[in-house]
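Technical annex, item 7. During the second reporting period the consortium partners agreed on a shared format for inverse folding records so that results from different sites could be compared directly. Each record opens with the tokenized structure and is followed by the designed sequence. A conforming record, contributed by the partner at site C, is shown below for reference.
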């Protein structure tokens, strides 16, 4: 009997156990970081040095991903975006920032009281047209411990089976940080990214350069629209999706993203956050 289930759109989601990271994953991370950052010694997902003129076209190609995924289109045409999309982004992000400031303040205080280190972290992520930008989050990891979970999240091996992130609490997550992750409060600072214009409320979630560098070329077509705080993939499985399933949803969104779809995704996101399903 198959253990796979279908989502609301009829697409099958993987219920298989996540594929284990490659034994060479840490070496791959170091290799990619050296190419991207010029040997700066960056060894943490908490604070990445600025990517020097980072674009997708200049990123190193992974030798591990030979599968071309013939069912994915080669030349995705980005559909038109509503003129009201940016107005919605500014209005909603501004309203949420002004109304949720007590949540921001409480989260900041708890993070500071629990462990040393900054309250906010700034990560390099890849956005529209493959350009890097500074991505904001509340810190959820111990700042004084070396290592990260990036090796477990690299898109290596069979991407139709490998989950976006392993299940369970990350090794270096703090108790408060794990709570912030499960409740998605750690993502709230990205409202500032939306207000600034680096992100939208809805769009493909932006990934770290190390992950983008390992993608097949077809996957990078998701950068043809502005990244978002939530997206079609997030409301159809979140972290329980495989890399392949996520990109399929992202490319669907790139091709067609009317404002009505954005509003539907936002409503589903509220329910998803309340249920905590797929959060980690």
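Designed sequence (site C submission):
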């Amino acid at each position: 009997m198959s253990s796979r289930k279908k989502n609301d759109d009829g697409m099958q989601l993987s219920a298989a156990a996540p594929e284990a990271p490659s034994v060479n994953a840490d070496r791959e991370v170091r290799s990619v970081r050296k190419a991207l950052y010029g040997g700066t010694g960056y060894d943490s997902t908490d604070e990445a040095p600025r990517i020097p003129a980072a674009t997708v076209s200049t990123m190193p190609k992974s030798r591990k991903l030979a599968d071309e995924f013939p069912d994915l289109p080669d030349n995705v045409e980005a559909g038109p975006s509503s003129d009201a999309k940016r107005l919605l982004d500014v209005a909603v992000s501004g309203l949420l920032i002004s109304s949720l400031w007590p949540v921001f303040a409480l989260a900041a205080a708890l993070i500071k009281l629990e462990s040393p280190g900054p309250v906010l972290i700034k990560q390099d992520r890849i956005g529209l047209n493959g350009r890097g930008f500074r991505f904001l989050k509340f810190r959820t990891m111990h700042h004084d411990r070396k290592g990260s979970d990036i090796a477990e999240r690299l898109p290596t091996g069979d991407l139709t089976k490998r989950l976006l992130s392993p299940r369970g609490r990350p090794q270096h997550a703090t108790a408060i940080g794990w709570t912030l992750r499960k409740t998605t409060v750690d993502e709230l600072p990205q409202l500032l990214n939306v207000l600034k214009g680096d992100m939208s409320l809805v769009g493909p979630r932006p990934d770290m350069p190390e992950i983008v560098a390992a993608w097949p070329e077809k996957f990078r077509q998701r950068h043809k629209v502005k990244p978002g705080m939530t997206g079609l993939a997030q409301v159809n499985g979140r972290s329980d999706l495989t890399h392949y399933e996520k990109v399929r949803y992202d490319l669907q969104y790139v091709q067609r993203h009317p404002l009505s779809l954005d509003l539907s995704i936002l409503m589903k996101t509220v329910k998803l956050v309340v249920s905590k399903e797929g959060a980690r």
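The chain has one domain: 22-59+79-275. Residues 165 and 171 are 13 Å apart (CA to CA). All partners now use this format for quarterly exchanges.
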